[in-house]
Amino acid sequence: MSLKNRVRGSENDSVANQLIQSWEHDSDTLKFRRASSNFIYSFERNGIRHFLRFIHEEDNTIEKIQAELDFMLYLLANGYPTVAPVLSKNGNRIETIRAADNGCYYGVVFEQAKGIHLPLDRMTDRHAQEWGRSLASMHILSGAYTSGEAKRGSWLDALTFVSSVLQRHPCEEGARRELEQVRRQLSELPASAEHMGLIHYDFETDNIFYDEEESRYCAIDFDDAMIHWYAMDIVSAIADLTEQEEDNTQRKIEHFLSGYRSIKPLDECYVELFPLFQRFSDLYTFARLFRSVEDMDVQSSPEWAIQLKDKLLKVCDRIRERFRPTVELRPVDQSNWYTCTQLEVTDEQKNVFPVPVVYWLAESAYCGFTPLAMYTGEQLVGFAVCAIDPEDGSNWIMAYMIDHKFQHRGLGRSGMEELIRYMKEKHGCDKIVLGHRTENKRASNLYASLGFVEVGRDEREVIRELKISK
């Protein structure tokens, strides 16, 4: 949901008060609960709690909501515990209102889920196993589900949405690279009905309630459901567990997976693909958060919305860090020295990096420098040389380059950060020194952003130092 619509939809509870008139309800019981992906209000009907959920037309379509409800009704008809949508006074499961100067809102009412919310720190091994069994049981039913006219989107639709958001933010180069890689790798996976179907996508503890009497979970909030690999549902379900560092975290994950496998097979090859599905989740979350803060008028927004925007952008910053490629430094030896000599900068860069790699290899051999090859995966992408000045013991980066075929991918920054880490660990140095041509603005900006401070210059070269904290 966009922050703009979150502000408009929560003003004076006016939208909720309009929508609730379409359902039977006890007067003066409507109460705001939260607003995230949807607005959620509780109310009572004949003394029994129900929930009103609604969303603006810009944030969802009535067709997607209908497809969500169709799947939930299918699950209920087949004995799977979820919450039932309640018919309105007009006999509809979805009601629409038009707010003054604010577009349409779509509302749905659900019964209250049976059971209790069970947070991770209160979840026993048995609870974790039942959690996995519950998700697998839903996947079994999903495999036999035939949707009606209203259909949920797929993982490809989600990536198309990501692409549309990134087109409005051309500076997000890392996210665009990640999008293409994730799309390509997912496209190469088998799309058989055995491993793929309609998934919940948000089967975490906030959306399941444990019924102790029946020893099973009741699932709610299917509004993110999409056609995807079932393994994606597992990854999103246990995402909070994988981020924890408690001693029993891995045991809970193992019990979750054993519970899942007791109902539905889970090939080990799909477990090995968990990191890929997590990358999809990161990318989709990143785009959704970015989209949510677009077009927000800070000047007219309440303070809570401004603070929330800052919080969401910080989450985007953390996710953005994961889009940066990983660079590994390896020694230059008989297996890769010749390949290193084939590395080149662009023709335009040869005036600021005029010395070929073969020269640096020769000088390293005779002057005691350390040449290093930079890899991402098994692909050689760059080259660096570091050395210790015999006179004062200072640590120097003598040469640093990314091959022209691999530039503009974030490798320059990732490689330099890895080189700094390498020199700090290997030599325990308190500062690192380097030089670059005065006209090399890209290098100047990169080094400055990493903390290298200018300490000297002449007509040809700028000298910079990075202080290393112990």
TrEMBL record:
InterPro entries in the record, alphabetically? Acyl_CoA_acyltransferase, Aminoglycoside_PTrfase, GNAT_dom, Kinase-like_dom_sf, Pseudomonas-type_ThrB
- What are the residue boundaries of the N-acetyltransferase domain, all occurrences included? 327-470
Instruction: State which Enzyme Commission number(s) the record gives.
Output: 2.7.1.190
Q: Which residues form a coiled coil?
A: none
Query: Which key words tag this protein in UniProt?
Result: Multifunctional enzyme, Transferase
Key word Protease present in the record? Answer: no
GO MF entries: acyltransferase activity, transferring groups other than amino-acyl groups; amino acid kinase activity; aminoglycoside phosphotransferase activity
Q: Does the keyword Transferase apply?
A: yes
Q: Which CDD domains match?
A: NAT_SF
What reactions does this protein catalyze? a gentamycin + GTP = a gentamycin 2''-phosphate + GDP + H(+)
Job description of the protein: Involved in resistance to gentamicin, tobramycin, and kanamycin. Tobramycin and kanamycin resistance is due to the ACC activity, specified by N-terminal region. The C-terminal region is a kinase that phosphorylates several 4,6-disubstituted aminoglycosides.
Record-stated family: Belongs to the pseudomonas-type ThrB family. In the C-terminal section; belongs to the aminoglycoside phosphotransferase family.
- Name of the protein: Bifunctional AAC/APH
Q: Which organism is it from?
A: Cohnella faecalis
